Amino acid sequence: MKKIIIKLIIYIPLVLLGLEILIRTFNLTKDYPIRYVDEMGVEKWLPNQHGVSVTGIRRQNASEFRINNSGFNSYREYTPSKETFEIALVGDSFIEGFHQNYYNSIGKKIENKLNGIQVYEYGYAGYDLADELHLIHQYQDAFNLIDLVFISLEFETDLTRPNYTILGERMKLESPLYKALRQCKLLVYMQTIGILDAPKSLFSKALSQDKNINIDHPSEEETHSNLEYFENFKKLVNTYGFDKTRYIFLLDAEITPEAFLKYLKNNEFKYVDFSEILNNSKSSTTLLYDMHWNDHGRELIAKLISFYITENK
Amino acid sequence: MLFNSLEYFIFLPVVFFLYWTVFKKHLKAQNALILLASYIFYGMWDWRFLSLILLSTVVDYTTGLNIYASQGFKTRKLWLWASITFNIGLLGFFKYYNFFVDSWIDLTSVFGYHLKSTWTLKVILPVGISFYTFQTMSYSFDVYYRKIKPTKDFLAFATYVSFFPQLVAGPIERASNLLPQIAKKRNFKYNQIVEGLKLILWGLFKKVALADAVAPIVDDVFANYSSYPASTLILGVIMFSFQIYCDFSGYSDIAIGSAKLFGIELMSNFKFPYFSRNIGEFWQRWHISLSTWFKSYLYIPLGGSRVATSKVIRNVFIIFIVSGFWHGANWTFIFWGGLHAAAFTPVLLLKRNRAYKNSTIGGDTFFTTLKEITAALVTFSVVSFSWIFFRSNSLRDSFQFINRIFEQFYFEPYFHVKGYRMIDYYILIIVFILYEFRIRKDERNPIPFKSKYVRFITYTILIFMMLLFYDDNTDRSFIYFQF
Q1: Spatial distance between the Cα atoms of A154 and B337, rounded to a whole number of angstroms
Q2: Which residues in chain A are contacts of B418 at CB distance < 8 A?
Q3: CB within 10 Å: which end of chain A, N or C, has fewer?
Q4: How confident is the model at residue B107 (pLDDT cuts 50, 70, 90)?
């Protein structure tokens, strides 16, 4: 028995070390850029970082990212001026675009379609409307120089809170413990492909039993009615301001309640609906191993925005 | 509790540790621990069906004692039939009842009667029922044929029936092999434990990196066969051949490996069947515990091959069709069995069924001959063809699938449903075949290298391959659990 235990104590760490080496050798995991909250209270990436984002098993999708001076994934720096025509795309991971090479983003595609235009991509995974409007509000000086601002909005997920606060859940990922854990590429890979879901779920089940909480059912706080979302929307717009002449929502009308679309129209909020152009596409618009837009999907979104700009310039 | 689940990876070391420490000194305590662990293991699926196992245990324990105690031939036979009736009845009710009702309704509809299916019941199939009922029946048979004496130790017998490593999907053990091991003191043997751990790793590799990895391809091809050309359909069939082999033999390896951790040797269930040079050899290497069960308790009592040729053919068809039916209440399995009987009969009549009994492909040489490779490929093709019936949902689907292979006989590259590179799977399977060829002589020693460095590299690579081919969205249960 002793011999077996001793052998296991020797072999297991050695095998883990071997796996770590193999995973590093074949670059199977993504690089994690560092996130932080700047002096304006905006959560974003620490400026000037480079790396590769990997999705799926066996490096199925690998794309380069470049965090610019402003702390966002983009091929360009943001220097708005009165002389040039700039547009900003403000949104979540779809705009952030870690699933694509940074030089092949929606912004780049728009610039390719329209001469003399600069596109600034303020994308950050997990951003909701509170994050987006707060960001615009805090960077008012820059945004006042930007000619058009497209703000992505998904009714079901982006209106869950009435005001901006720094989300502890996301910033927790920058704690020393998480940073240290991320140094272990084996762990990162296992987490990415879902192997750690079972132990995590077992652990959380055990915890929830201790606290007598049933994790299978959403708590009351998680259940929001459409009415609450409406109220949150109004509060956010009132708190952070909204320039109806320059700000345009980018949304999927098919998954947005009719009443909310009506409200936007009645109150002169402009929006661009991308549901039709994506649904009419004969080829797939999303990645196979990911829900994000693929190259074709991004091309269609860029086409839609370019068309809107041309029509309204 | 699945072998490839986190629960099992906590459960197994805990039971192992208790078994060789706290319960080490007393045989009865060790057996009681295994019995308790087995009931927990099984109860985690559905604790209600534990009553069936317990009932089966009590019935066969009692009938075993009564068969032995009976003096007259008729009484002994009566007790044997009591055991058979009970076990087959259990199987018949839980597994085949609805099949017979539906088949009767279908048959009457041919003659213009349209009966309503009011007799069918919503019966859940208890996991492993086909395995443990056959195992307990084998005990009654062995006592009846005086191969073994019945045990008076109920605890040992209950442990034999419900031994968790092989409870839900075999190997279907003979009482003559397993019961004596349970009845006597086991000693901790370092080598046996290491062999067990190696088999568990090898079984897991086959399940995770191969069976589960190709499952989405197989599911896609069989679900959408009407829209694919012959090249894709053939690819799907080949992939299923590897899926079912790696799934079931992987399970068996984990079972045998787990049993070794408790000092118990289970019988081998697979001996590299895809290297078989004819269908006779295939059945000596595929699901050995079931095929030998049918041979011992059905084929030989029917007269085996020591009767007139017509009866030999009849016997062959009976065991293969019954074997097919054992797999599931569906005509596809019966047809699958019939197909194997048809392929096996000429081999038997030409007396080639045992031609390769004591040899492996390639013998002692590093490579094999072209003749043997051709023979193995022909056998693999026949077996793979039969898998179409095994995998399809209905006979109609099977025939349409085959029909489409001939009608749409052209090549088109296949793209993985989830966008993964197909070349990865082709390389994996080729490397797997070459590795299996390397280890083909001893199925119980899949990592046979003498150098500890080579062994260490092999362990690391096997785990690495599991990580590379792990698919989070695949149903990870074992195919044979449904039987």
Answers
A1: 55
A2: 288-289
A3: C
A4: confident
| Residues ≥6 apart with Cβ < 8 Å to B252 | B169, B170, B171, B203, B268, B269, B270
pLDDT category at A218 given cuts 50, 70, 90 is very low
Please judge whether B460 and A22 are an interchain contact, meaning their C-beta atoms are less than 8 angstroms apart: yes
Residue A213 confidence class, pLDDT cut points 50, 70, 90: very low
A41-67 residue pLDDT tens: 999 999 999 999 988 788 888 899 999
Nearest-CB residue to B472 (from A1, A58, A194): A194
Interface of B with A in 20-59 (CB under 8 A): 20-21
- The shortest C-alpha distance from A72 to chain B (Å) reads 29
- Paired tokens of B221: 């091809």
Please spell the DSSP secondary structure of A39-107, one letter per residue: TTS-EEEPSSEEEEEEETGGG-EEEEEEE-TTSSB-SS-----SSSEEEEEEESHHHH-TTS-GGGSHH
pTM here is 0.86
Domains of chain A: 35-166+223-312 (3.40.50.1110)
For residue A214, the model assigns a pLDDT of 47
Does A12 contact B at CB distance below 8 Å?
A: no
Bond prior to B171 in cis (omega within 30° of 0): yes
Residue B327: active-site member: yes
Burial class (CB in 10 A: 0-12, 13-18, 19+), A142: middle
Structure tokens at B350: 């030409």
Give chain A's mean pLDDT. 89
Q: Which of B26, B114, B287, B327 is catalytic?
A: B327
In terms of CA atoms, which chain B residue is nearest residue A55?
Answer: B420
- Domain ranges (residues) in chain B: 6-185, 191-277+356-482
Which residues, numbered 451 to 470 in chain B, qualify as contacts with chain A under a Cβ-Cβ cut-off of 8 Å? 456-457, 459-460, 463-464, 467-470
With an 8 Å Cβ cutoff, are A58 and B424 in contact? yes
Give the minimum alpha-carbon distance from B420 to chain A in angstroms, rounded to a whole number: 7
Closest CA of chain A from B200, distance in Å: 15
Q: ipTM score here?
A: 0.83
